[in-house]
Amino acid sequence: MPETPSSQSVQQLYLDNHGWLQQWLRRKTGCREQAADLAQDTFMRLLTQRKVEELKQPRAYLSRIARSLMIDQFRRRMLEQAYLESLAALPEPAEISPQERNVILETLLQIDQMLDGLGPRTREIFLLAQLDGLSHAAIGRQLNLSTNTVSKHFVRAMAHCLLLIGD
Fold first, then answer.
1. Which segment, 19-23, 83-87, 99-103, 132-136, is predicted with the most confidence on average?
2. 129: nearest Cα among 104, 154, 112, 96
3. Of residues 11, 4, 2, 5, the one with CA closest to residue 46
4. Packing angle between helix 98-116 and helix 147-166, nearest 10 degrees?
5. Which of 27, 43, 128, 166 has its CA 20 to 30 A from that of 149?
6. CB distance 125 to 157 below 8 Å
7. pTM: predicted TM-score of the whole model, two decimal places
8. Cβ proximity of 126 and 93 under 8 Å
């Protein structure tokens, strides 16, 4: 059965760029296996997001996808590390099943992505209020802002989160 133009384009794009992408990723990550996994994930994401024939600069597009995947992987590792450190700090060993652990990690990733849509100051105010339990006045003193400004940022963050939850 002859190949369609689309499958020929995908095959050619893969042949032309896979080795280059894997080398690029190996330099970025310092790990051959991680680079191979990320290269494969990059092509999988490309296939699900865009028609290959429309690419004018495939290497620029592939490196942008790969960079995004590396950032996602880095965030996930940082969240996992923070989670493991918080578990280690508990007075009693917590017995959590692998399923519960995955649910917790996925929830943390969703929260991180939610907060990613906020500006740095708004995110910091929200986290100081929610995680550290600081009052708006205490946050204002810490960040050298008025209580009114802190309240506006906090309301903006809450509205942002509620809109995302509603979606």
1. 19-23
2. 154
3. 11
4. 120
5. 166
6. yes
7. 0.52
8. no
